[in-house]
Automatic annotation (TrEMBL):
Organism listed in the record: Thauera humireducens
InterPro entries linked to this entry: 4Fe4S_Fe-S-bd (IPR017896), 4Fe4S_Fe_S_CS (IPR017900), QueG (IPR004453), QueG_DUF1730 (IPR013542)
Gene: queG
Phylogenetic classification of the source organism: Bacteria, Pseudomonadati, Pseudomonadota, Betaproteobacteria, Rhodocyclales
The protein's name in its UniProt record: Epoxyqueuosine reductase
Reactions accelerated catalytically: epoxyqueuosine(34) in tRNA + AH2 = queuosine(34) in tRNA + A + H2O
Source domain of life: Bacteria
Length: 367
């Protein structure tokens, strides 16, 4: 009733009565012009997701990501996060770049594997800019109160997107779409416009367990449930301390993130290359050798990762991750020399991982 009353009293910038369906059609058109792959609209009632979120937090699956628990149920209550919100507009932006073959890169122990989403410019900046432009374009047509989000606040983006027809939640917990797989970013516009909502789509995972079987560390502990403490993306990006020794061999040559569950998913044969030039690989990160990257000084790291999502882990964790990968690499003189050169690094975190890597190769510390 309140939404109907709000719609009855609304008007466009030109004074014409509010027509939600017509406006949504224009939003889809504007979104396509901005490069978005799809648009979906959901209401703010996510109460059905709250028990699952609570159980996940109580199990400690969020690891050291304390902010996940700190925000509590606000994550599942958009109208509490942004008072006045009636609808959440979810948008999809493809990111899979025209890069070297991911499987071949993973199979070459001398090369570094960087998750494909992180090879180019930081998606937060690209996506947020597009979302802001779209929200402003909507406001020019029909004034509205809004706020845009790109991984920047407690938002259950996959839950919202699975409710508004953008796809369904796969067993790896990522969003899947029959025509686009899962290689895309999600962003949201919270708005007080009473737009018509989209219908959810049926899930199409069936009995497939490819993603679960492919996880190198067994982080997908059950269908639709990930223990972040075992996830390589968490270990190489979110974790600030030492990587648990028992999991280090399973990291292989993955130095930033992991794509294995997505690479194994049959639906990603329909994934499309991104048209966004900002997501193209920078500094040869899609084919770079571990020894080469391990030699980057802090200044070089800062310069070459500027504007990249990799920048936020800092040089210390960059070296930590690569030291593990070098410990897993085929033994070679240049690998051992690279590790020996960092054996007395000022950081205890780096030194410990270098020592572990040298021990894996049966090599002594320098000196």
């Amino acid at each position: 009733m309140a939404e109907n009353a709000a719609a009855d009293g609304m008007a466009g910038a030109d004074g014409t009565p509010f027509d939600g369906a017509a406006l949504l059609a224009r939003i889809r058109q504007w979104a396509a012009e901005l490069g978005f792959g799809a648009v979906g609209v959901a209401d703010t009632d996510l109460h059905e997701a709250e028990p699952g979120l609570t159980a996940w937090l109580n199990a400690g699956f969020h690891g050291g990501m304390d902010y996940m628990a700190r925000h509590g149920m606000k994550r599942a209550r958009p109208a509490e996060l942004v008072p006045g919100t009636l609808r959440v507009i979810s948008l999809r932006l493809d990111y899979w770049p025209d890069a070297a073959d991911a499987g071949a890169n993973l199979a070459d122990g001398q090369r570094a594997y960087v998750s494909r989403y992180a090879l180019g410019r930081d998606y937060h900046k690209v996506l947020r800019n597009r979302l802001q432009k779209l929200a402003e374009r909507i406001a020019a047509e029909v004034p509205h109160a809004y706020r845009v989000f790109t991984d920047s606040a407690p938002v259950l983006e996959v839950e919202l997107a699975s409710r508004n027809g953008l796809g369904w939640r796969g067993k790896h917990t990522l969003l899947l779409d029959r025509s686009a797989g899962s290689y895309f970013f999600l962003g949201e516009i919270f708005t007080d416009l009473p737009l018509p909502v989209d219908e959810p789509v049926e899930p199409h995972c069936g009995r497939c367990t490819a993603c679960i079987d492919a996880c190198p560390t067994g982080a997908i502990v059950a269908p639709y449930q990930v223990d972040a403490r075992r996830c390589i993306s968490y270990l190489t990006i979110e974790l600030h301390g030492p990587i648990p020794e028992a999991l280090r061999p399973s990291l292989g040559n993955r130095i930033y993130g992991c794509d294995d569950c997505q690479l194994a998913c049959p639906w990603n044969r329909f994934a499309r290359l991104t048209a966004e030039g900002d997501f193209a690989p920078r500094h040869g990160l899609d084919t770079a050798r571990l020894v080469e990257l391990f030699a980057w000084s802090e200044a070089v790291f800062a310069e070459r990762t500027a504007g990249s999502p990799i920048h936020r882990i800092g040089h210390e964790r960059w070296l930590r991750n690569i030291a593990v990968a070098l410990g897993n690499a085929p033994a070679a003189p240049d690998v051992l020399a690279a590790l020996q050169a960092r054996a007395d690094h000022p950081s205890a975190l780096v030194r410990e991982h270098v020592a572990w890597a040298l021990a894996r190769h049966g090599a002594p510390l320098a000196g």
